[in-house]
Design a protein that fits this description.
The protein is mainly alpha-helical and 156 residues long. Helix content is 60%, strand content 4%. Strands 1-2 form a two-stranded antiparallel sheet. It comes from uncultured Escherichia sp.
Length: 156
Amino acid sequence: MQTNGADKIVNNYLFVYEMIQKLFDANNLNFRSHILGNASSSQECPRYYQAVFLALYELIINENMQLDDEQKFIAQLGDSVQRSMVQTEGGRWAASARQKSVEDLCALIRRYFKESENKFINHAWQTLIRTLLNNSRTEQPNYDFKQGGDAANLLI
C-alpha cells in the first residue's frame, strides 16, 4: 500500500474486475456455469473466481501483459480451471494451496497473452461511473427536483 498507494491498488483491482466482467458478458457466459458447470454449488465459485482474478492480476498488472486471444483464453478457462485447482477440505483455503492454484493457472493461460507495448490503460473509472449512475437513481436529500413554477421559467 505504501509503495503504490491506495488509489492505484483500487484502480488496478477495478481494471481486472472490469476485464473479467467484459469477457464473460461479451461471450454471453456466466462465470460459475462456464468454469464449474451447471451441477456445481455456488459455494465453490468464490475460490475459482479468486484464482482467476489473481492470475489475471499477475499477468496484466504485475507482468504488463495483455490478452491476445480472447476466444482460446475463454475456452481454456472453461476446460481447465477446475482441474488445475488444488482442492482443500474445510471452509478455509490454505494460502499455499491458493498460491499454487494461481501459479498453475498463470502457466495455463500465459500463452493467450502477449507483452504489452505500453503500460496498460486503466478504465476503472467505468465501474465508478456505473456505480454513481446506479446510486443517482435513488432519491437523495441533497437534490431538489422541481416541476413547473419557477423551474419552468428557467428553461425559457
